Amino acid sequence: MMQGLDGIVAAETVLSDVDGANGRLVIRGHPVEELARDATAESVAHLLLSGFFADEPGGANELASAIGKAREEVFRRLSAQLEVIASRSPVEALRAGLALLPDGDDFPAALRLLAAPAVLTPAIIRLQRGEAPLAPDPEMSQSADMLRMLSGPPASEASQRALDAYLATVSDHGLNASTFTARVVASTQAGLGSAAIAALSALKGPLHGGAPGPVLDMLKAIDAPEAAETWLAGALARGERLMGFGHRIYKVRDPRADALKAAIEELSKAEARTSRLALAEAVEVAALRTLRRKKPGRRLETNVEFYTAVLLDALGFPADSFTCVFAAGRMPGWIAHAREQELTGRLMRPQSRYVGPETKEAA
Ligand code: ACO
User: Fold this and answer.
1) pLDDT tens-digit profile of 274-301?
2) Which one, of 29, 61, 346, 22, lies nearest residue 172 by Cα?
């Protein structure tokens, strides 16, 4: 029996195709590299959600304006509770915020979910820094507004583009653990909010979307390229996993790693901001060499989380909020999969094989 459901096809989807052998990702007909270069948070949400709701708006521009209004709605609904929510870690706070929104299967419910991480993530970060949350501006794009609500002044074009590249790159990825979770919950017809909260709970773990914070911790601990090899070998000797490496499906390099690296390079070209890119490149080379030596035959390559850490750090997000930004990017994928499950699937109910004690006969 496959303990981790390896190789099991549990759903048919029109949403994304993950080709692990060749390192290719296609999202509704578009290679991830193209989306990372050209798409926005709104255009990728439009791409993923089209056809799944009776009352959806026509084009990407209409969707952008509806998401802007939903950001205002989420802020209005939750502003009184933000301080209580923000007493938890950012990802637990985001989960608590999602849980305070009304559940549903209609487009307004989807819009609230698309807007919520973009509003809540900066608000939680600011409150934890002792600053007041900033209200959303519905006229701005999701990325521009998210960065402004984080820092105050309007973000540069280059920063907005880099955040859009990130959000588009992580928008969907086959039946990963969180998306599978979303589909299981949606298969019971519990509602999109329930599916998204369950998905976020699965995303939170370090074997999935909780990895980029620890990647940044690793880069900070290594600090200089010449220290990388010793530090990494020490971590492996202690039985630790190197965060940002390895993948269940990709046995070659995760194509999202290069898409994100290109986005960081663009950002660094446009703005001479301090980025850990040079250090990260050196650590990546050292990690791949060390993994090949210490884990021969395992085919452990760089995954999406490695350059996620460098990009989100350069954009000013603190490490403990990286999973929340990931959730902002993955939300359209979760919603689209949940709707696809509701519309075309049936209750997901696998079986287990009992290996426990035999029934004891009464003496
Ligand atoms: N560092 C060191 N060793 C590793 C790593 C790693 N990053 N990843 C896997 N291995 C080793 C395992 O220890 C195991 O070796 P062993 O058989 O000698 O014990 C072997 O490689 C196979 O590992 P599995 O557990 O079978 O791999 P699995 O497919 O279950 O795990 C996972 C994939 C969870 C991503 C894993 O590679 C990992 O833990 N990586 C680090 C965390 C990480 O980067 N998470 C983000 C993933 S991307 C995403 O979810 C968006």
Assistant:
1) 668 999 999 999 999 999 999 999 999 9
2) 29
